[in-house]
Every structure is written in structure tokens, then in C-alpha cells.
Design brief:
The protein has 20 helices and 18 strands. It is an alpha+beta fold and 574 residues long. It has 2 domains: 113 residues, Penicillin-binding protein 2a (Domain 2), CATH 3.90.1310.10; 321 residues, Beta-lactamase (3-Layer(aba) Sandwich).
Length: 574
């Protein structure tokens, strides 16, 4: 009995001790949790090592920015949009072994440099970018590594669904989603504030056609590159803007890997249509004839002596395919006579020539919404010799877009409209009259004449009454011109009975081939591009073909090309 009482007493004492220990342990555990909690609050809200500091170190706002607005073509086709992505960063302060971590990371992201990653992870900071905008699969593989110190931040990556198509118009953004070129740059604020999507005047259907046909011709004639533009003559809207070679905006960062890639990207990024300035050769005869007709110094019946070259100030002005006779104004245009054009320019005079070229918008920057543009290079002083060479496109250099916009004004009834890459839902009210409706009508007939019977036959697109002008110019160099380095162009328009669009194509240093009998001129190289583009694009743009032999179609382009009967007849400038 005594033993049983002693056992119960001992058991009760042991239970009391256990309860006491549990209470003390619980109190200590509660205290520990309290300390941890206080420490977490301290770390989270007050410590310089907390997320706020990391956010400052990364220069990332705590509140996420809104998405960047979309860019679409004139028909609502998506050209640029935002995609949520993960970006990988590291915290070197908690990386246990930088060498092991760097080696493991490069194992799943082989495009990274192990040496660069190691250098970043060995730094004393708490934040280093390791790779921006990784794929979901890449994020999964990094997470599988299970390495403390690798973290992700959600960002937005700019995506271009159609890749390189229209890249010189759209442009691109950098890693921080800021616009660096094209519309992305020009409308950066509006796109960043996501006020509304930006609708371009570009039509991706005709953009694809022009790019494809121009690229094929560049390859065929082994040219260095080329450019092209399609312009609405009544609104100034650019439906297509092509510059080749071009580039994929998603692969910009690759250009920094070597000097060779940097130089290649520089060439690809250069916008030949708005930034490149070129002597366009006989394309300028369009403007020379328009000025002569508008000022009244010549009319369709006037003629000039083109029997022999002009020699002035040590220079000789001659014709590529000389007729060696007197030529009427239409014949000068149709046969692309430099001699006749130069003599017309002398009648026009330096002051009038410069004024009209300025009125046509050729002497100032374009109104297009791109920072990548250049204005004309023209002679100073502007002499009579300058006036003669400018008459056939030498001694003055302009962008292809400038030329296309000026031609649109010449053929649309005489109104110059500001060019734009933004869709216009109404006809612009800020057009400026530069020539009369009558002069415009006469020029339409001359342009049609070139395609029917002159140097632009290869631009013909049956059913669409194409008109236009060839241009071939030697590239200038120090002390003269490169005889075999040509800028070959064709500016066309259709339909000439009621013009709607200007189409220009240009090739940089095309080489003659057997099919072209060794020629690399605008008529052989650029004119076929315009022909193919019009044939394919016109139906998409709602322009139905017409019977070109019908009386109303013939009347729209009818013009007399009478050869002078007597040498002394008409105007002669010696």
C-alpha cells in the first residue's frame, strides 16, 4: 500500500514537471515567433535590405506600369503589341557559390556567357539582371535548378507578329519598352500612356507585295539594296514603305555580339526611303516639264534643238540614246533627252526652278511621322549650270519619299498634301496648290506616253493605265561619278485617267544581266517591280481594270507627238 502511494506521488510529480516544461517551452516558442514577426516587419518595412531597396536598386517602380498600346495597320491587322514575360535577376548577397550557380544557369540558358554571369553573381550588390524576357520554358528550367538567389520580375515585351514586314515604319523598342525607332519612337508617349492604339496608313497586303517584288528584283540584278513606297495621291497616306535590306525587330540584341553584326545591322536599320538621299536622274524631268508648262516658257507644241551635246564650264551634257534632232516637249520627255531638258531649264531660270522645287516640298523635311528622315542636298550657289543638271536629276539629291509626294502633287490636279503614316479617315484640308489643274492634266498624258511608247514600257500593267518615268543616275564620288554604280528608279502612277496611287521602286547598284542585254537602268530594273505591284495590288485596293482601247480611256491619255518639220521651228536655246 505504501509502495502504491509512493508510485502515484511520483507519477503526479512527473506530470507536473512535464506540464511546467510545456508551458515554459510554449512561452519560449511564442516569444520566438514574436521576435521573428517583429524582425519580418522590420525587414519588410524598414530594413535597407528589404524589397523597397531592391526595387530602388533595380530602378523599377513598385507600382507596375500600364501596358504599351498596340499598333495596327489601316485594316486593324496587329503590327505591334505587348506580351507579359518573366525577366530573371540575381541577388549576389544570397548566392552561396557563384561559380556553381553561373555554370548551372548557363547550362539551361546557353546563350549567356558564363564569365559574365559569374562576374555579376560575384558582385557586392543585391540585384543584377541576368536575362530579360525569358520564355515560360526557360523560367521552368531555371526554377528546376533550385538555386537561392535567382528570382523573376514580371515585365512586358514588345512583340511584332509580322516580324520584319514594315519594320522601318513601325520601328522597335528597347529592353525598357521605350521606343527607339519608327512610329514606336515618334509616338512613344502616346503608346506608353496607352491612350489608344495607333492605326497606321500602311496596308500590310500591299506592303507584302511591294517587299516581295522588290526583293526578287534586287536578287535578280545583284543590287546592294533598294526602296519602295506606295502613296495615296489624294490623302498623302503611305500605304507601303519598304527599305531593303531590313531586319527582324526581335533580334536586335544579337547585333551587339560582334563588329561584323553591328555593321550589318546598321545597314539593315538604315531607312533608304526616308533617310537616304539620292540623285534620281531623269525622274526629275517630271518636275522640269511641269515647271516649264506651268510658267508658260514652253507648251506641248514647243521644240528644242537636241542635235548635239551642250558644253558649259568644262562639262558636257549629252543624251543616253541620242535622237540627234530637234525634239518637241513630249518627245523630250518620251525619249528622256538631257539636252532638251537642260535647255528648257535655261528658259525657266534659276529662281523659278528653285521656287517650284521648294513649292513641291523637295527642299525641306517631309511631314511624315518618323525621325529617320533627311532633307535635300542641293547646290550652293545655284547657278545656270546647276539648273541645267538639276533638270535631269543630277546635282540635287532627295529621298524617294520626297520624290513620290511631289509626283503625287503633279498628277492629282496640282495639290501637295503632307505625307503621313497615320490613317486618315477624311480628306486632308491642308493641301497646297502648286500647279494648275491644266498642267497636271498635261503631265498625266506625258507620263502615260512614257509607258506606252518610251523608256517605261516594262512598267505596263494591262488594264490599269499606268504612267510614269524612269530614272538612272550614276552615284557621286569624290571628284566625279562612278560610271557603273547606278541608282535606278521608276516612279509610276495609276490609273492615269483618274490617278489614285503613286508607286515608286528603286535599286541601289543593280548589275546588268543577259536578260537586260547588260543594262541596269531604271527601265530594266525598277519598272518591272512597279508593273508587278500594280497588277497584284490594284484589285486589293478596289480598282477595277478598264479597257485601255475604249474611247474614254484613249482620250484621257491622248497626246500629239509631232516631230518638227524644220530646224528653225519653235524655241531654240544654244
Amino acid at each position: 500500500m505504501t509502495e502504491r502511494i509512493s508510485f502515484r506521488s511520483a507519477q503526479k510529480k512527473a506530470l507536473d514537471i512535464a506540464r511546467t516544461r510545456l508551458l515554459v517551452g510554449g512561452a519560449l516558442l511564442a516569444a520566438a515567433f514574436l521576435v521573428i514577426g517583429v524582425r519580418l516587419v522590420d525587414v519588410t518595412l524598414f530594413s535597407e535590405n528589404g524589397p523597397s531597396r531592391q526595387a530602388n536598386a533595380r530602378n523599377i517602380a513598385v507600382e507596375k506600369k500600364m501596358d504599351r498600346a498596340d499598333i495596327v495597320d489601316r485594316n486593324g491587322i496587329l503590327l505591334a503589341t505587348g506580351l507579359k514575360t518573366a525577366s530573371l535577376y540575381g541577388d549576389p548577397s544570397i548566392i552561396i557559390d557563384p561559380k556553381v550557380a553561373a555554370r548551372a544557369l548557363v547550362g539551361v540558358l546557353p546563350e549567356l556567357s558564363e564569365a559574365d554571369v559569374l562576374q555579376k553573381l560575384s558582385s557586392k550588390g543585391e540585384f543584377v539582371w541576368l536575362k530579360r524576357h525569358i520564355t515560360p520554358r526557360q523560367k521552368y528550367e531555371v526554377n528546376r535548378l533550385g538555386i537561392p538567389g535567382f528570382e523573376f520580375d514580371e515585365e512586358e515585351r514588345r512583340v511584332y507578329p509580322l516580324g520584319r514586314l514594315a519594320v522601318h515604319a513601325i520601328g522597335f523598342t528597347g529592353d525598357d519598352n521605350k521606343g527607339l525607332a519608327g512610329i514606336e519612337n515618334s509616338f512613344n508617349t502616346a503608346l506608353s500612356e496607352r491612350s489608344e492604339r495607333v492605326t497606321l496608313s500602311i496596308d500590310v497586303r500591299v506592303q507584302q507585295i511591294l517587299r516581295r517584288e522588290l526583293a526578287a528584283q534586287i536578287k535578280k540584278f545583284k543590287a546592294l539594296g533598294g526602296s519602295g513606297v506606295i502613296l495615296d495621291v489624294h490623302t498623302g497616306e503611305v500605304l507601303s514603305l519598304v527599305s531593303l535590306p531590313d531586319f527582324d525587330p526581335h533580334t536586335i540584341k544579337q547585333a551587339s555580339r560582334s563588329e561584323k553584326l553591328k555593321e550589318e545591322f546598321k545597314n539593315q536599320q538604315f531607312n533608304r526611303t526616308t533617310l537616304g538621299v539620292y540623285e534620281l536622274g531623269s525622274v526629275f524631268k517630271i518636275f522640269n516639264h511641269a515647271i516649264a508648262l506651268e510658267t508658260g516658257v514652253a507648251n506641248m507644241a514647243s521644240n528644242y534643238d537636241a542635235r548635239k551635246p551642250i558644253r558649259s564650264h568644262g562639262f558636257t551634257i549629252s543624251d543616253f540614246h541620242a535622237e540627234n534632232r530637234w525634239l518637241t516637249v513630249p518627245e523630250i520627255f518620251m525619249h528622256s533627252s538631257n539636252i532638251g531638258s537642260a535647255k528648257m531649264a535655261l528658259d525657266i531660270g534659276v529662281a523659278a526652278q528653285r521656287k517650284f522645287l521648294t513649292d513641291l516640298g523637295l527642299m525641306r523635311r517631309s511631314s511624315i511621322e518618323l525621325s529617320e528622315q533627311q532633307q535635300a542636298i542641293f547646290p550652293a550657289p545655284w547657278t545656270e549650270l546647276s539648273a541645267m543638271t538639276i533638270a535631269y536629276g543630277h546635282g540635287i539629291a532627295v529621298t524617294p519619299l520626297h520624290a513620290a509626294a511631289a509626283v503625287a502633287a503633279v498628277i492629282n490636279g496640282g495639290i501637295l498634301y503632307p505625307t503621313t503614316l497615320i490613317r486618315r479617315d477624311e480628306l486632308p484640308a491642308n493641301g497646297k496648290r502648286v500647279i494648275s489643274a491644266q498642267t497636271s492634266a498635261d503631265m498625266r498624258k506625258l507620263l502615260r506616253l512614257v509607258v506606252e511608247n518610251g523608256t517605261g514600257r516594262n512598267a505596263e500593267a494591262p488594264g490599269y493605265l499606268v504612267g510614269g518615268k524612269t530614272g538612272t543616275a550614276e552615284k557621286p564620288t569624290a571628284g566625279g561619278y562612278k560610271r557603273k554604280a547606278l541608282i535606278s528608279s521608276f516612279i509610276g502612277a495609276f490609273p492615269m485617267n483618274a490617278p489614285r496611287y503613286v508607286v515608286m521602286a528603286q535599286l541601289d547598284e543593280p548589275k546588268g544581266i543577259k536578260e537586260s542585254y547588260g543594262y541596269a537602268t531604271g527601265g530594266w530594273t525598277a519598272a518591272p517591280v512597279v508593273s508587278q505591284v500594280i497588277s497584284q495590288a490594284a484589285p486589293l485596293l478596289g480598282i477595277a481594270p478598264v479597257d485601255e482601247t475604249a474611247p474614254n480611256a484613249r482620250r484621257a491619255s491622248a497626246i500629239k507627238v509631232a516631230t518638227p518639220r524644220a530646224r528653225g521651228q519653235g524655241i531654240a536655246t544654244n
